[in-house]
Amino acid sequence: MNKRVVILGAGESGVGAALLSKKLGFDTFVSDLSEIKDNFRRELDDAGISYEEKKHSEELIFNADIVVKSPGIPDKVAMLVALREKGIEIVSEIEFAARYSKAKYVCITGSNGKTTTTLLTYHILKNAGINVGLAGNIGQSLARQVAEADDKEWYVLELSSFQLDGMYQFRADIAILMNITPDHLDRYEYKMENYIQSKFRVIQNQTEEDAFIYCLDDENITKELERREIKARQYPFSNVTEVRAGAFCHNDEIQIKVKEDVMSVFTEQLAIQGQHNRYNTMAAGIVARLFQIRKPAIRESLISFKGVEHRLERVLSVRGMEFINDSKATNVNSTWYALESMKTDVIWIAGGVDKGNDYSELMQLAGQKVKALICLGVDNKKLLDNFQGVIPTIVECGSMHEAVKSAYYLGEKGDTILLSPACASFDLFDSYEHRGREFKECVRNL
């Protein structure tokens, strides 16, 4: 009997899963509640894959043997609950694709820093000549790459909690957990414990042959580790504590220790600066040493890495003011790192869709560094309630053009204009990328 694979969602991961399913000879159907983008619709047409858009037809979905779900669809949706009650398997695109690939995986998750760490790790491995691909929550989907017979020996995967929630048999050869801070709690019944368990799925199925790299300075991680028996070899990294195996930073020198061998690099040599990037560098550096890449090659890659668009990205200097695009900061902890790394007075642009934010951890930094807050969102009440009396000047704006103009007039030579929203973007923008691009365009038009 021909296996029927139904894919819910026709974005990059959904279309990738559909292409792989079709290639494997399965009866493939794609269903998307929204309108499918033209480029993805063309791909489905060209591949002869049947699909529907702007609806979910139960008679075409409930006859599935397996459902591959977009990470954006919450597990509590009535259709998914009904599918599970019928005993139909529901998996993520990563889980589905990995079943048909012989590759090994470096898997990176965390509330913050995972994109930079993923790209930095990929940069180091690729420069060292390793047959490595990049997938997950970034770039082309894993399923697409497996379908295109572009299967690699290794993949570096950036994994969100939503992707991990749909992964069951998958095993990470090297798992990295950067940090766990409150984020997406609306998807986890506003319970931090549920979110922590989701992040720790990155080490499920690991054996003694595998490696687990994690931040020793993160209280949520260390508390959870006390409750667990970890099979994999452990490599913690820290800005505070010297470790026997792993990495730590002391007096602006990062030391990486793997198998009794020590490698060091000075933070001033790194292309990416700031405390958060020390963590990213330590995690990627441990991976590089596990691969036994030569130390000069690792240093060269660390020095040449250019960073990530929309993550503390320098845009322009206008009238002596630096404009920084940190649109990827969609939670409070990301913004904490951004403000912590600022060396001048800051005009801070923030706001958007609040995900259950607790702004208390930003109070001290905001009081020390921020001279003006520009609230850019449909509903700014929470920002206003928290920062009135902490930040001298607070302005509300309804568009990016208005926000950038206000920042320009409020700023002086030597100030930094920082877009670091601490919120999701969906009230005024399609995505954090759309928000970041608009910011850059408005700055260039000053």
From TrEMBL:
Enzyme Commission number, as recorded: 6.3.2.9
Pfam families: Mur_ligase_C, Mur_ligase_M, MurD_N
Residues of the Mur ligase central domain: 108-287
GO biological process per UniProt: cell division; cell wall organization; peptidoglycan biosynthetic process; regulation of cell shape
Sites where the protein binds ATP: G110, S111, N112, G113, K114, T115, T116
Assigned GO CC terms: cytoplasm
Main location (coarse class): cytoplasm
Organism superkingdom: Bacteria
Mur ligase C-terminal domain segment(s): 310-423
Record keyword Nucleotide-binding present: yes
SUPFAM superfamilies documented for this protein: MurCD N-terminal domain (SSF51984), MurD-like peptide ligases, catalytic domain (SSF53623), MurD-like peptide ligases, peptide-binding domain (SSF53244)
A GO molecular function held by the record: UDP-N-acetylmuramoylalanine-D-glutamate ligase activity
Keywords of this entry: ATP-binding, Cell cycle, Cell division, Cell shape, Cell wall biogenesis/degradation, Cytoplasm, Ligase, Nucleotide-binding, Peptidoglycan synthesis
Database matches in InterPro entries: Mur-like_cat_sf, Mur_ligase_C, Mur_ligase_C_dom_sf, Mur_ligase_cen, MurD
Subcellular location: Cytoplasm
Pathway membership, UniProt: Cell wall biogenesis; peptidoglycan biosynthesis
Top-level EC class as recorded in UniProt: ligase
Catalysed reactions, as listed in the record: UDP-N-acetyl-alpha-D-muramoyl-L-alanine + D-glutamate + ATP = UDP-N-acetyl-alpha-D-muramoyl-L-alanyl-D-glutamate + ADP + phosphate + H(+)
Family statement drawn from the similarity comment of this UniProt entry: Belongs to the MurCDEF family.
Biological function: Cell wall formation. Catalyzes the addition of glutamate to the nucleotide precursor UDP-N-acetylmuramoyl-L-alanine (UMA).
Protein name (database record): UDP-N-acetylmuramoylalanine--D-glutamate ligase
The organism of origin for this protein: Plebeiibacterium sediminum
